[in-house]
User: Fold Acetyl-coenzyme A carboxylase carboxyl transferase subunit beta from Roseibium aggregatum.
Amino acid sequence: MNWINSLVRPKIRDLLKKREVPENLWIKCPETGEMVFHRDLEANLWVVPNSGHHMRMPAVKRLETLFDGGDYETVETPEAHADPLKFRDTKKYVDRLKEYRTRTGENDAIRVARGKVNGAPLTAAVQDFAFMGGSLGMAAGEAILTGMQSAVTHHTPFVLFAASGGARMQEGILSLMQMPRTTVGVQMLREAGLPYIVVLTNPTTGGVSASYAMLGDVHIAEPGAQIGFAGRRVIEQTIREKLPEGFQSAEYLLEHGMVDMVVKRHDLKDTIARICDILMKRKVEVPSLAPPEPAGDTIETEAGETDQKAAAG
Assistant:
């Protein structure tokens, strides 16, 4: 037996063999360059611990953190025509849809669910940027309308987590038609007297920000989220001027009255629940602003009642 061929060479090959390491075990913070272990990031709701940068969050995890105990009921949405225009760019649109459905496990960019938040019923829709940039197409428009109709039927507030690059170009004008359709859905909620709360996440741009994402009763933004219609470069080339620092960020829009509040992800659930309680005219515990009564001596009477006397010098 040739021990060099049978023993030494296999061991050398094993040493030189490229080990397969799963991708995305460590995630880099876009602001500081800090490397964060993916489990630590997930445990912290996809917020980088040291910098506080809010990373994109999967739609399913978003719903799990919103509803009590992660328990919710998925609202079934109608199917739309897969490829109405027979569109093709570098690949067929139907093939691109199959690719993203396999990659994300979602049928399209919107997931709708119903459950309880701090004990109160609520209907929510989450736009997943991982599915073709959260683009608004026929299926997404149908999902949003179905969610709003479900909120009206069950008389619950409707919360939308927006994250999108805009309308889906592969569906052309049929995609743009979803903008007025969803606007009608917003009006339907208002006629029913139900709150419509929009949470603007990073990024919310294009036709989405030009329609239902900016029609809420209350607009909440996550820290650092990019919110606007056109991109910074396009605007600067159009107006031939340099835009201010932080333009289109959540904090900039808050300063200029475009959003109502910027809320950290860890505080979103309680903030949404409190706003819904107020708008639905439920009983809300408000802390007393009255000063505390001065302390004094207390004595027990024969009847067992407690009397309070001011302390004497």
